[in-house]
Write a structure and sequence with these properties.
Number of helices: 15
Structural class: alpha/beta
Largest sheet: 8 strands, mixed
Shape: globular
Oligomer: single chain
């Protein structure tokens, strides 16, 4: 069967798309992302890795909420110019649309932090743009990815799952009825990270003669589970990367302040972020506690007490977490760009948080995947991404289902 054409919505830096391309079964026709650095990163990846000479045009930097302009073209002071998605597609048949709207409005952590429980957040309804594009393009299938918090979000009083299910049905697509069966932990597929995600497969109702329910059942209960793999650990993922050791005093090199040496590495995006002496001391204390088997700070309460003792401030959540060498990592979040306190490298001699490359490894990005922009933007785009290895599983599973249909 020929490669299937796809469009990637809410592309980010391209984790979901990269997995689909790695499967060898799909061809990327276009994508859209509204933040500059992820967009630049994805354009470079498509050009350098996948041979897309026109990636600057194929990946559109734009606000997807302005859907009509995205489809038909725009000229904008902020986003520049584009002939629009429909012209980029031209006469190509689009088989699949993939993507997941930004998840912060659905995430449990986001709702805890926000005094209004994220009910007023515009991101609750970005799926409406997804629906508009489905209606315009009418692919046979779509993959809609999001956080588990989606299953309990009710920004208007009606569960968002009901709203989304009804919207997909009106657009002519059938999805699984019990979305709790669409939840997967990526660590079950060889990703060295605990990260649960909802994967919604939509099948256009008019192409399967009433068999959509059976096909969806096969997809979730037979095909995807066939890709389960042994758990991978933090050590498996980052254990071979060059180390960085704390300096006695910070130094400035070319105007940049460093707390660890060496100041660079031959591995792309593998540079330590700056830490003050207090934090380096905390990292040393916590990692040594685990290495020596005392586990004095293993509980949340002890970690909260330590934070109050050392900073004089109180927190409702624990601020520190040391990655366990012989387990999958905790979830790599977008919030990692603000601080690395909950992603501390397990080696007490290094006493630091993880680098961008280490975060990327835990997300299963290949080392030749280069992240552009400031370091904070790099952490953020990695945390927002779908692990490419898991995306490859979804791509292979979808391809297997499509072959069964054909």
């Amino acid at each position: 069967m020929e490669k299937l054409n796809l469009i990637d919505l809410f592309s980010g830096c391209g984790g979901l798309l990269d997995g689909f391309l790695q499967s060898g079964h799909f061809n990327a026709v276009a994508g859209i992302e509204w933040e500059k650095y992820p967009c630049d990163t994805l354009r470079r990846r498509l050009r350098d890795k996948w041979g897309h000479k026109n990636s600057d045009k194929e990946v559109i930097l734009f606000d997807i909420q302005r859907t009509d302009e995205f489809l038909n073209g725009f000229s904008d002071k902020e986003y520049g110019q584009s002939s629009g998605l429909l012209k980029i597609i031209s006469n190509k048949k689009i088989d699949v649309i993939i993507g997941g709207p930004p998840c912060q409005a659905y995430s449990l952590a986001g709702r805890i932090r926000d005094p209004h429980g994220m009910k007023d957040d515009y991101r609750n309804f970005l799926f409406e743009s997804y629906i508009k594009i489905l209606n315009a393009i009418k692919p046979n299938f779509f993959i809609f990815e999001n956080v588990v918090g989606l299953l309990s979000a009710s920004p208007t009083g009606t569960p968002i799952t009901e709203i989304i299910t009804d919207a997909f049905a009106k657009a002519g697509y059938q999805i699984i009825q019990n979305l709790r069966e669409a939840v997967f932990d990526v660590s079950d597929f060889g990703v060295p990270q605990r990260r649960k995600r909802v994967i919604i497969l939509g099948i256009r109702s008019d192409i399967v003669d009433g068999n959509a329910s059976k096909l969806l059942d096969d997809f979730y209960k037979k095909i995807i589970p066939s890709f389960y793999r042994d758990k991978q650990t933090v050590e498996d993922a980052i254990g071979d990367l060059p180390p960085f050791y704390p300096l006695e005093e910070p130094v400035k090199v070319n105007g940049v302040k460093y707390s660890h040496q060496p100041f660079s590495s031959s591995i792309p995006n593998h540079i330590p972020r700056f830490h003050n002496n207090r934090d380096i001391g905390i990292f040393k204390l916590l990692t040594t506690d685990i290495e020596e088997g005392r586990f004095e700070f293993a509980s949340t309460e002890k970690l909260k007490e330590l934070y109050t003792k050392l900073t004089g401030r109180k927190s409702n959540i624990h601020k520190y977490y040391v990655l366990r060498r012989n387990e999958p990592s905790n979830t790599i979040p977008a919030h990692l760009y603000k601080d690395g306190m909950r992603h501390i490298h397990p080696d007490s001699k290094q006493s630091r948080s993880i680098t961008v490359r280490e975060a990327a490894r835990l997300q299963t990005f290949d080392d030749d995947f280069i992240f552009l922009g400031p370091m904070m933007a790099q952490y953020k785009m990695i945390g927002n991404a779908v692990p490419p290895l898991f995306a490859k599983v979804i791509a292979n599973a979808l391809y297997e289902l499509i072959c069964k249909i054909k």
